[in-house]
Structure formats: structure tokens, C-alpha cells
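Morning F.,

Quick status update on the modeling queue. The single chain you submitted on Monday has been processed. Sequence for confirmation:
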Amino acid sequence: MSANANANAIDPNETTATRRQRGEKIAEELGGEHPALLDALDRDFPFLANALTSYAVGEVLARTVLDIRTRQLALVAAFAALGLGDFIKIHGGYALEAGVTEDELKEIVYLTTIPGGFARALQASQAVAELLGSRRAA
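C-alpha cells below.
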């Protein structure tokens, strides 16, 4: 078993609190703006906030098979194909913080036409344009 496989093994005895702490640390390390979505979840839907932070971030994003840059590009592509603009902006921001270029984000939008069609690519282009515009204005 490779060292990477050992680092990505799930410990069945690990607590949700430990995974949440790891998730919060990873979210902080991703940089960029803290998504307002997470604040709203913490306030209004604490169970979902905990599940998101402990599982999606604390377990899935903690894996080391892909580097952060590649992982964020993959997430932007998946959210683009699904038409989830808010998540494109969140993970697009993390991708930019991880060294992805604006042209690379735009290329993801072009690629979205294959699995998602032109309508989803247009939605993704709007989300990426809003993200880039907000970063330029800041």
C-alpha cells in the first residue's frame, strides 16, 4: 500500500468533532472569502453545516491523491455541469487562491459544453465572470 493510500485511509474510530476540526482547518487553508453560505448553514441548519464541514471538507477534501489546485478545478467542472453557479464561485475562488489562472477557469466553462450543454456553459460563464469581477473590484 502506498503512503498516499495510508494517508487517505478512513479511521472508523475518528469522531465527527475531529473531522469537523480538520474540515474547518482545511477551509481556512483554502483561502479566499469565507462563503456566506456556510454562515447561513451554521445559523439556520447546523446539522447540514456540520455534515458539510466534517464529511465534504474534513474527509473528502482532506484526501491527498489530487493536489488542491486539481481538486478545485475538478469541483468547478462538476458544479458547472450541474449548473450550480454559487458553488462555481466558491470553488472557483479557492481554485484561484491555489494558483489556477483566469484562463484555466474559462477553459472549464468551454469544456462544460460537452457534458452539460450550452445552457450550463452559459450559466457557468456568468458565475465565473461574477467571480472574476468581484475579485477585480476588491
